[in-house]
Amino acid sequence: MKKRVAPKTSSGLLKVKKKPLKKGMLKKVPKRKVGTSTGSAIPLVMMLYGPPGIGKTSLAAHANNVCFITDPHEDGIVRLPHAGQCPVPNEHIIVPAWTDLIRAITHASKTHNTIVLDSLTGMQQLCFAHCCKKDYKDNWSSKGFYSYQQGPSTAATRYWEPEFIQALQHAFEKGTSIYLLAHSEMKQIDDPVNEGYNHYQPYLHKQLWQFTKRWCHNVIFYNHAVSMKKSEGFDKKKRPDLSTERRAFHTTHSIAYEAKNWPNMRPVLNAGPSASESHKLLLAEYNKCLTR
């Protein structure tokens, strides 16, 4: 497992150093600060999903004493600080393999108030690769991992739930807030009673998603919210009003998207003009609902 330590240089640019975690190094870390990233007694466990570029990574980077855990293909937390769109995280760990991911979660829960996993789609691929190697002799064909879709089911029941979800649960029990970032996808839902419809949900295999949804306290859909207005033409049809384009957090389940929250937050929260403001608004709503 490789760790990125990312202090700022005198010029303010991101300075990244790569060095492997040596045996015994995990014990030589400072104790984390007292308190959670939310400022409340209950840590925030949240899946934040949405389209690429909506601002998931930059929002999560404003959490308190944060450790980013990413797969090798997710480099947003490296690029965004250069552009001044978010602060440099307290620690950044790149996990090239499944076992490294589980170790990284355990390590971060001892030293940080917040763990951000970016993204779950990449973590899913690490899980599939580990399962394929352990249970299907590295055979990805229809006679191996993808034989009757047995591979994803095996990965979900043998590794995702008992190892990944349990590692997150242990971190939560230590008072660590957990942000799970995921891309969104549109699914066609075949309703046996009514007509079929399109539905946004996290880009995860359905069996891994069911375990994650069941455990995660809050699932929030972060998307663009565009107002409609009548055109000035002859037809008077309604068209998107680009002058009022904004972003919004959707916290309650809808026929159009997957979402839930346990403290009974408002169904739709308008995001702020910046990632920092959006993060503050989301935490303020969460803490407000906890004190009702």
Radius of gyration: 20 Å
CATH level-four homologous superfamily name of the domain at 2-12 and 39-222? P-loop containing nucleotide triphosphate hydrolases
Mean pLDDT: 83
Strand-residue fraction?
15-25%
CATH class of the domain at 2-12 and 39-222, named: Alpha Beta
Structural class: alpha/beta
Order of helix and strand elements from N to C terminus? EEEHEHEHEHHEEHEEEEEH
The portion of residues assigned to helices is: 25-40%
So how many helices?
A: 7
Taking the sheet with the most strands, its summary is: 11 strands, mixed
Q: What is the CA–CA distance across the termini? A: 43 Å
- From the spread of the alpha carbons, the general shape counts as globular
How many strand elements? 13
CATH architecture of the domain at 2-12 and 39-222: 3-Layer(aba) Sandwich
**Residue runs with pLDDT of under 50 for 5 or more positions:** 5-35
Task: Kindly identify the CATH topology of the domain at 2-12 and 39-222.
Answer: Rossmann fold
Could you characterize what this model shows?
With 292 residues, the chain is an alpha/beta fold. It has a domain at 2-12 and 39-222: Rossmann fold (3-Layer(aba) Sandwich), CATH 3.40.50. 30% of the residues lie in helices and 24% in strands. The strands form 2 sheets. Strands 1, 2, 3, 4, 5, 6, 7, 8, 9, 12 and 13 form an 11-stranded mixed beta sheet that branches. Strands 10-11 form a two-stranded antiparallel sheet. α2 (76-79) links the parallel β4 (66-70) and β5. α3 (98-111) packs parallel to α5 (150-173) and α5 (150-173) runs parallel beside α6 (206-215). The longest helix is centred in the middle third of the chain and has 24 residues, at 150-173. The protein is globular. 36% of the residues are buried.
